[in-house]
Amino acid sequence: MLNSKTILAGLLTLAGSLSVAQADTLQVVRDRGVVHCGVTTGFTGFSAPDSKGEWRGLDVDVCRAVAAAVLGDASKFKAVSLNAQQRFTALQSGEIDVLTRNTTATVTRDTTLGLMSAGTNYYDSQGVMVKKDLGVTSAKELDGAAVCVQPGTTTELNLADWFRGNGMDFNPVVINDPEEAMRSYSAGRCDAFTTDKSGLATMRSTLANPDEHVILPEDFSKEPLGPMVRQGDDE
Asked: Which CATH number is 126-219's, of 3.40.190.10, 2.40.420.20, 3.30.720.120, 3.40.30.10?
């Protein structure tokens, strides 16, 4: 089996040179013996603790894969739960080594945050969910509606762009915590809830009566989701 020095030498040969940030991150992880991954606060299918408190889901599997590749053991990871607003600061500050939390890759994030997308592992689209008794079958019937949305996300910007592009008005109900946003939606504080359609499907499944809610057909955007690292941490 190759040891860590041999692997690092191979990376140096392949890449030509490593930035200080990249070399430091690799060494910190190896010295620590655990990779720290940023995940959601609980999103079934992507990252959520099971009944035993063990994290499961696609984003957690990406973290396990990194641990296996860097440390030779898929169990050598720590899941750090982060909300949408915390995730980038945690990566920038070094609180986590890699952000595996479902995050949309955008040029703006790559160029202004000192971060970079490490690839796409799930193609999604943004949609909107409403209660069936609202009596609408299209998002184009939501003119003037109150819409629950999380701040600090592409979701918030896409929502405004879509309504503006269709000559419609809406009332944003901005709530940071997704679970609180869902409670507000369920309680009738907003007419609709918007996020990626995978998220809507997950949240719908947790409601007391899922069949009383419908995800409307419109796609507000295309969302390439995947892990992010700091600039210079390419390898």
From this structure: 3.40.190.10
